Amino acid sequence: MARLTKNQKAALSKIEANKAYTLEAAASLVKELTNTKFDSSVDIDVRLGVDPRKANQMVRGIATLPHGTGKTVRVLVLCTPDKEQEAKDAGADYVGLDDYIAKIEGGWTDVDIIITMPSVMAKVGRLGRILGPRNLMPNPKSGTVTTEVGKAVTDVKGGKIDFKVDKTGIIHTSIGKASFSADKIYENALEVLQTISKLKPSAAKGTYFKSIHLSSTMSPGITIETKSVAGI
């Protein structure tokens, strides 16, 4: 077992053993636990009482964080020429079609989000083997395949995130930065949790929220008392 560093020991000492915190308290505590030299991401991990192997228990959704992600999101829009200006005006970093498809086929994937249109999915579809493993493949369910490319760009630049339960039944997503105020971390986390609550599959039985943990990059996780979260 790896030995704990001095900073890791100090962080662990601030968490009471076997204690579940309110979401508000955890949002404050996660800032105290963060000691990286860079602006750490704040993440939330939610274990759900679902079987993601069954299609009727898959949980996937979109949340718009009220205070954004704190990250600079690089957006590529693959669209027809008539939509290029709309995408540029909305703040897309890269706009085009055939030239960028060729670049991606050559190995370029230096973006965070790819937005495209239904009418060009036949071309974009062949990039699945490259984009799929990198979680970059546009998907109508995440709002990245749309005719309203300008709105889609504005949304992702403004803090819209896409999340999906993994094969172990856990949703893991970033909800901000450690430099955010505790109130902003709390409100972003609450938005994600309330959105997940609304997505509960009718086929899921028993306890839906099994556990919730809040952490920052390289910090220990803070257990959240599920009953303390409003609206779930």
TrEMBL record:
InterPro entries: Ribosom_uL1_bac-type (IPR005878), Ribosomal_uL1 (IPR002143), Ribosomal_uL1-like (IPR023674), Ribosomal_uL1/biogenesis (IPR028364), Ribosomal_uL1_3-a/b-sand (IPR016095), Ribosomal_uL1_CS (IPR023673). Transmembrane segments: none annotated. GO terms for cellular component: ribosome. Keywords: Repressor, Ribonucleoprotein, Ribosomal protein, RNA-binding, rRNA-binding, Translation regulation, tRNA-binding. PROSITE patterns: RIBOSOMAL_L1. CDD domains: Ribosomal_L1. It holds the Pfam family Ribosomal_L1. Binds directly to 23S rRNA. The L1 stalk is quite mobile in the ribosome, and is involved in E site tRNA release. Protein L1 is also a translational repressor protein, it controls the translation of the L11 operon by binding to its mRNA. Belongs to the universal ribosomal protein uL1 family. HAMAP family: Ribosomal_uL1_B. Part of the 50S ribosomal subunit. This is Large ribosomal subunit protein uL1. It comes from Mucilaginibacter litoreus. The gene is rplA.
